[in-house]
Design goal:
This protein is an all-alpha fold. Helix content is about 80%, strand content about 0%.
Length: about 180
């Protein structure tokens, strides 16, 4: 276990160096070193899912979305893409700013969920990844309407959209509702 943790610290150091590097070649070199170390760790510590998650994230950071998606799909399949794992995978993708893929996984989780409260929770999470105000409104309307934060976010987003569309009076009404 200490060996794995020490190696993970080295992987994290390489990932931080890659994010800090201004030169794209230096970034790529650091990510490749991190990837090689992770691959070695994953071969030796097969039970640790976090290593496979990191490999997927490194692939995305290297700009290899196909490899990243393949690795994420491999992580989802053993659990038959259940709601919990889809939610986790969405969070992993958000960490590497793959918001389009994260949205897709949250939508899949929402579609699979049967419990109304958990479905509303997933809608709220999906709303935070909205691509535009109309998308955010659509998901907030599916979220928990008894939650004051959901209500306020919905009204504020409606006000924002109305203002974008030069419907100033409507925007003011939504803002007042958000504040009341």
């Amino acid at each position: 276990e200490p060996t794995r943790l020490t190696a993970l610290d080295l992987v994290n150091l390489r990932a931080r160096r890659a994010r800090a590097a201004l030169d794209p070649r230096a970034q790529q070199a650091e990510l490749e070193k991190a990837e090689k170390l992770l691959e070695e760790l994953a071969r030796n510590f097969t039970l640790y899912r976090d290593l496979r998650v990191l490999l997927a994230q490194v692939a995305y950071r290297k700009g290899d979305a196909l490899e990243g998606k393949r690795r994420i799909d491999e992580l989802l399949e053993p659990d038959k893409r259940n709601v919990r794992v889809l939610l986790e995978a969405s969070a992993w993708l958000q960490e590497v700013e793959e918001f389009t893929e994260a949205r897709k996984l949250l939508e899949e989780a929402y579609d699979k969920e049967t419990d109304a409260k958990r479905k509303a929770f997933l809608a709220g999470r999906r709303a935070h990844l909205a691509s535009d105000p109309a998308d955010r409104i659509a998901w907030l309307q599916k979220a928990d309407s008894s939650n004051l934060m959901v209500q306020a976010n919905l009204r504020l987003t409606q006000a924002h959209l109305a203002r974008q569309q030069d419907r100033v009076k409507e925007a003011i009404i939504h803002l007042r509702q958000a504040l009341s």
